[in-house]
Amino acid sequence: MGRRSNKEERQEALRRYLRINPFATDEELAEKFKVSVPTIRLDRLALGIPEVRERIMAMAREARTRVRGVTTEDIVGELVELQPGSLGISILEITPQMLVQPAGVARGHYLFAQAHTLALATVGAEVVLTSSARVRYRRSVYAGERVVARAMVKVKKGNACLVSVHSRVNGEIVFKGQFIIITP
Amino acid sequence: MGRRSNKEERQEALRRYLRINPFATDEELAEKFKVSVPTIRLDRLALGIPEVRERIMAMAREARTRVRGVTTEDIVGELVELQPGSLGISILEITPQMLVQPAGVARGHYLFAQAHTLALATVGAEVVLTSSARVRYRRSVYAGERVVARAMVKVKKGNACLVSVHSRVNGEIVFKGQFIIITP
């Protein structure tokens, strides 16, 4: 009886958590809810929530229809949310090809390219040109990590836009960037 | 008689010019010396100076032997000069794959990647980590253009290095960057 209500509580919490963190993997969810990965899979099945890859694909299909100024192929990472002129989110999975040898960490310009292309898409104009950028690397990123970048249009002044991007791995900030983008 | 000494003067000027601008193409030289491209080719033949591609390859072979901290494959563009701890030069030819559609200009993160990887190589340490970067895009870059990036280590303080990079097309600055690089 008690166990059943635990399970229901957990599933309700899981549903709420995924609404805010739709990109969490089963592994991350298992750790968060202190259960096994198969348990999370059964919970998702019971709730009718598809696996992370499918959730991302569905959001990506939706987001892609709103891209202007760059093509979706230009975007480094998978665009999963886009409110042109306001907000954009993309996910970049770090693959072994992205690593600097011999250090074994992701090349910094991949994080830059993810943030930069996301910033351009987030501006949402037909023509976008980057004027300047300031970026800060907070910690090294490793193979297998998923970098979630979130871009926000902070200031619009004339034909210039300031876009701020925060990139996180498991909620921890790994990269911050500010881009001044011109829409001539 | 007069024509011959004109030719000798031009060849001497050409030799001097190429010592300072070893990456000039025959087309650029023809424009600079107000003669035809075949004339430049004959001049180079007379002087025993190989074509630009070969000159770059020879310098690149030499520069590559001095790379530390990154692998030569990591470097975006062709590394043509490297004095570790002091100076580095690389050349990036803009290919159609690097263009943003529909604008038709080179994606800004290629210029960033060229400058960034060059800055890392120029530091010349076994392990290099980027802490932050400030970059400025001065003008758009188009297909077929050759971007010559020049990196200089400006300040060393403890385990941090400030590397300044200027990227030019035909002598005109198209991009400037400053990178803070840590050598732990």
From TrEMBL, chains A, B:
Gene Ontology biological-process annotations: fatty acid biosynthetic process; negative regulation of DNA-templated transcription; negative regulation of fatty acid biosynthetic process
Keyword line: DNA-binding, Fatty acid biosynthesis, Fatty acid metabolism, Lipid biosynthesis, Lipid metabolism, Repressor, Transcription, Transcription regulation
UniProt GO molecular function: DNA binding; DNA-binding transcription factor activity
InterPro entries, sorted: HotDog_dom_sf (IPR029069), Transcription_factor_FapR (IPR017275), WH-like_DNA-bd_sf (IPR036388), WH_DNA-bd_sf (IPR036390)
The UniProt record lists the keyword Transmembrane: no
Protein name in UniProt: Transcription factor FapR
Organism: Neomoorella humiferrea
Gene from which this protein is expressed: fapR
